[in-house]
Amino acid sequence: LPDPSVFDHRWLEVQVATLTCPQRWVQYLRLLQESIWPGGLLPECPRPARTQAQKAAAEKQALQSLMGVLPDIVVGILGVNKCRLSWSLVLESLQQPLINRHLIYCLWDIILEFLDLSASAEESAVTSSAADTPGSPKKMGISP
């Protein structure tokens, strides 16, 4: 039988890859844009403050969604209560402004690094194709 930790590690890799693929980033950015500028326009007045009941309902819905992310084997091993408690701690942590700020900075670092790497890959492809042309400085042994 394969080691369960290998399965968990691979499952986590696949989930992270899925959540951070370019299509998902486009979706995240569109959702962010739509939440800030609904219909492409800045709202004339701020949204009314949410009631405690609305906040509790949103938290309950988020907790249910997060519980659905975990595979049944993980829930079976840890138990429903520990999984729910863990996700509740995550949600509670995300209510802290300092943690949110740090998370946003880290996400932007990742996005900027990703965008820079893809731009570098495109530049290197252009450079390498230019280096293959006859008479180019690379072919002639001249460094640019």
Automatic annotation (TrEMBL):
GO molecular function, one term: phosphatidylinositol binding
Recorded coiled-coil stretches: none
Classification via InterPro entries: Sorting_nexin_C
Superkingdom classification of source: Eukaryota
All residue ranges annotated as the Sorting nexin C-terminal domain in the record: 10-97
Species for this entry: Balaenoptera physalus
Record's protein name: Sorting nexin C-terminal domain-containing protein
